[in-house]
Write a structure and sequence with these properties.
The complex is a heterodimer of chains A (about 230) and B (about 400). Chain A has about 230 residues and is α/β, with parallel strands linked by helices. Chain A is about 35% helix and about 30% strand. Chain A is globular, with a radius of gyration of 18 Å. In chain B, the strands form 3 sheets. Chain B has a 9-stranded mixed beta sheet. Chain B has a two-stranded antiparallel ribbon with strand order 2-3. The radius of gyration of chain B is 33 Å and the shape is elongated. Chain B starts with a helix and ends with a helix. Classes of the chains: A alpha/beta (about 230), B alpha+beta (about 400). At the A-B interface, helix 2, helix 3 and helix 4 of A face helix 1, helix 12 and helix 13 of B. The structure holds adenosine-5'-triphosphate (ATP) and magnesium ion.
Chain lengths: ~230, ~400
């Protein structure tokens, strides 16, 4: 637990829409170490998704420094930033976000599409992670032929197929029942044990027991209330 | 898994919208192809008519003054005091690179002469065989014209071959001429009589049957005889050519003539006909206008369809971007989809355009048009269609690439 995976220094994010200004993040500084698993909690509108999208190289901050694995990511060009997302990050979105016209297998291959691997290699890599999440026998189904929990597993398989060091998940269990949600959380726990760094936004306090550290956001700031929650 | 897997799968999923776009392109390209097919067929038909007329290309000295009329087509005037054509020019024409296209060269010396009674008459000195070949309407009045007339009535018309066979009989010595029927009537002369032209006596060897053309009033003699008689031993007034349009390109032939004989004026009856035909000109104008309109509408259809597609796929594009697709990958996806549809549309449009033209032939030109599967037209159809597809998809594709992935994934 020595090397720093994520380093945020004095991050501010202001959204401007039609004259209105919303300060979604206010002077946020945070270090997350390699191999850590962190849950992010807080009320709706407190800035959790904003924080995640800034870490996800999708949303540049208004000010402050974002370093992932020592790389100042927002100094990268647009195209290099896309490559960075592909190589460093695995996203698991709320609502799974699978492409409806691609099979589970093809959805998992998406992050490999623009890489220079052979088709066969891509297929094998995707099949392997699908087996890992227990969906080997259903990999040729379309997303709407899978249950919610199964779709979530496909989404996780897609996030890890490229073997990225960092997984970012935004309420991955939000729409699942408790039992399925717990299974998914166990999967995340397992992945973390294998060395992946996991950062997860969640509304469910029960989920925090599968993860190491919990940080709480309030009105765009990191809050000290974490003790209360734990 | 490659980008094309995504492209093909998406096209399959959006079948109805993509079919709509495809249909729009097919209809557009088919219309353009069929209109120009009809125009092309009209041109071919006219070329055929001009070919049947015999004379297709007329070479005259380069300047105005004298007008020639060929079957109703009047060529620009020619002046006499300019550099004249010579026998040598005839040899040059017969040795051109495209000489295989030239079936007949009919050079002649034309002069207006005074007859004994003070009557003016046009005298043509030419190579009679070529002259009769190139002017199929020229025939010799038959000995027993009564018989041939009844024969004509039965048969309807005299086949061209029969006339050609007559030609071998037509030979003149230095003091013999052929005169037109109207001239013979007005001079009250018959076959075998003699008349005086420029103080020289000539025997009338043949009289031409009435054709309704200018030759009815003219005198025909050998080129050599005329050149000696008028004291212009090398001079040629005009060269008529009969051209085989199937043997090569008319443009090349005309260019070669111009290049080798820079001092002459070359007139193509075919091009004059095509230029002067009102119907054709209007149809070409109509075709161009329709094509511009179609290209415009086609771009609109493709642009709107693709924009709609990009809007519907906002979330999907956000996911692609979050998963590490570059902007250029997104542009590639959108443009490829449009490319595939417009390519297929171009091919189908070409096929249906040809079929439409062949079925609508009877309406426009009164005869069936054989569908012509010309590769060049296929290339143009596909090229045009692909250009429409790509150009009108550039904006939607750039819009897709510019989509902010964070924004695209926000409301989900
Ligand atoms: N693109 C945007 N434009 C304008 N305002 C935005 C934008 N994204 C977020 N906001 C605002 O920033 C604040 C933080 O939003 P964010 O989505 O980060 O909250 P959250 O903690 O994820 O909430 P939830 O738990 O409901 O998902 C909110 O007030 C939100 O309205
Ligand atoms: Mg959120």
């Amino acid at each position: 637990m020595s090397e720093i995976m994520i380093s945020l220094k004095d991050i501010n994010k202001t959204y401007k829409s039609m004259g209105d200004e919303v300060q979604a993040l206010k002077s946020v500084s945070l270090d997350i170490y390699k191999g850590e698993s962190v849950s992010v909690m807080g009320h709706s509108g407190s800035g959790k998704s904003t924080l995640l999208s800034i870490l996800g190289a999708l949303n540049p901050p208004s000010s402050g420094l974002v370093e992932i694995d020592g790389i100042d990511i927002y100094k990268l060009s647009q195209e290099r930033l896309a490559d960075f997302r592909r190589e460093y990050l695995g996203f698991v979105f709320q609502q799974f976000q699978l492409i409806p016209y691609l099979t589970a297998h093809e959805n998992v291959m998406l992050p490999l599409t623009t890489t220079k691997r052979s088709n066969r290699e891509k297929r094998e890599m995707a099949a392997q992670v699908l087996e890992r999440v227990g969906l080997k026998n259903k990999m040729n189904r379309l997303p709407n032929q899978l249950s919610g929990g199964e779709q979530e597993r496909v989404a996780i398989a897609r996030a890890i197929v490229n073997a990225p060091p960092l997984i970012l998940a935004d309420e991955p269990t939000g729409s699942l029942d408790t039992k399925t949600g717990d299974e998914i959380m166990e999967l995340f726990q397992q992945l973390n044990k294998e060395g992946l760094t996991v950062l997860m936004v969640t509304h469910n306090p029960d989920n925090t027991k599968y993860l190491g550290r919990t940080i709480v956001m309030k009105d765009g700031r990191l809050s000290d209330e974490r003790l209360n929650l734990n | 898994m490659q980008l094309y897997n995504i492209i093909i799968n998406n096209l399959r999923r959006r079948k109805s919208k993509m079919l709509f776009m495809l249909l729009g392109i097919v209809i557009g390209i088919a219309t353009i192809v069929s209109v120009f097919n009809v125009i092309e067929s009209m041109k071919t038909q006219m070329t055929k008519q001009v070919s049947e007329y015999g004379i297709n290309v007329v070479i005259t000295p380069d300047s105005g003054g004298l007008t020639f009329s060929y079957g109703g087509i009047i060529l620009p005037e020619i002046l006499y005091d300019v550099e004249q054509l010579t026998n040598e020019d005839v040899d040059i024409i017969s040795q051109l690179g495209s000489k295989d296209m030239i079936r007949i060269i009919a050079p002649k010396l034309i002069s207006v002469e005074m007859l004994e009674g003070g009557q003016k008459v046009t005298v043509i000195g030419g190579n009679l065989k070529q002259e009769f070949q190139i002017k199929p309407w020229l025939t010799i009045e038959n000995e027993n014209s009564e018989a041939s007339l009844t024969e004509k009535n039965i048969e309807g018309f005299v086949p061209a071959d029969l006339i050609r066979q007559d030609i071998s009989v037509i030979e003149l010595s230095e003091d013999q001429i052929i005169i037109g029927s109207a001239l013979a009537n007005s001079l009250k002369v018959n076959k075998g009589d003699t008349i005086k032209i420029s103080d020289n006596q000539f025997e009338i060897k043949f009289i031409l049957s009435e054709s309704g053309e200018t030759e009815d009033h003219q005198v025909l003699m050998n080129l050599k005889t005329a050149q000696t008689l008028f004291n212009k031993p090398e001079e040629i007034t005009v060269m008529d050519l009969s051209v085989d349009y199937e043997a090569g390109s008319e443009e090349v032939l005309l260019a070669e003539i111009k290049e080798n004989l820079p001092h002459v004026q070359v007139s193509s009856l075919r091009q004059e006909t095509l230029k002067r035909d009102e119907m054709l000109t209007r149809l070409v104008r109509f075709g161009v206008a329709v094509s511009i309109l179609i290209v415009f509408i086609g771009m609109l259809v493709v642009g709107i369809t693709m924009s709609g597609s990009v809007r519907e796929r906002t979330r999907e594009i956000g996911i692609f971007r979050a998963l590490g697709f570059r902007k250029s990958h997104i542009i590639k996806i959108i443009l490829s989809e449009s490319l595939i549809i417009s390519f297929v549309g171009g091919v189908l449009g070409y096929i249906s355009g040809n079929l439409i033209a062949s079925y609508s032939g009877p309406i426009f030109i009164g005869e069936t048009i054989q569908p012509e599967w010309r590769v060049l037209v296929l290339f143009i159809s596909v090229g045009l269609s692909v250009a429409i597809g790509l150009i009108s998809s550039i904006i939607p594709a750039l819009k897709a690439a510019k989509l902010d992935p964070a924004e695209a994934l926000r409301f989900i």
